[in-house]
Design a protein that fits this description.
It is built from nine helices and six strands, in the order αααααββαβαβαββα.
Length: 242
Amino acid sequence: MSMSRLFSLAVLSFLAGCATADRVQALEAKVEALEKKVEELPAKAGGKAAPRDEKAEKAAATLYEGLTKDVQAGKIDVAKAKLKELKAKYSSTTAYRRARKLERELEVIGKPAPSTLKIEKWYKNETKIDLASDTPTLLVFWELWCPHCKREVPNMEAIYTKNKGKLQMVGLTKVTRSATDEKITEFIDEKKLTYPMAKEDGEMSKAFNVSGIPAAAAVKGGKIIWRGHPGRLTDEMIAGWM
């Protein structure tokens, strides 16, 4: 992997780790601009940068746009097929680098969920979550230090209230960095959150391929049926799980 690609992926991971869905594109555009500058460095140093294949970039961008729309529409199998084509034909393009986060999310969809939800501590409304149930379960991964999490986590309250009895739901945090149990409890009380909140040791995050936050996953009948950013959730999508 080229140094420019490593640099771009590192920057994107740092910038987009806790970004909302509508900001990811803007962040990726910034990374693309940075990547171009890095690719020019060898030429300035007397070396030669690899030529950019504009035809491949355009074809890859079209595939990427299509697969993101398919993901949003819930057409997971179609999206996976497009991602496979994108990776096979255009793995060196900017579009494929952008698709890496989606790739990690799509990887787990259709796979068995953990047999049990492993909880270290409950902060709010301790409840038995049955991941094997035909009642769908929405898991929301977050951390207190993440500003976008602090916006998205309260937004999930409306989803919980609207679908209570039809949708199991739990917020999961590992209590990292400057967070403490006391600060978590204060945040929950301040935002008047009523859906179950708990602490996990990272095993659930690993099982659902969560590396950036906020993140969410849906499980039904013991299988993972959706993975993505909580900001992508729609009423239509949730209704389709019922």
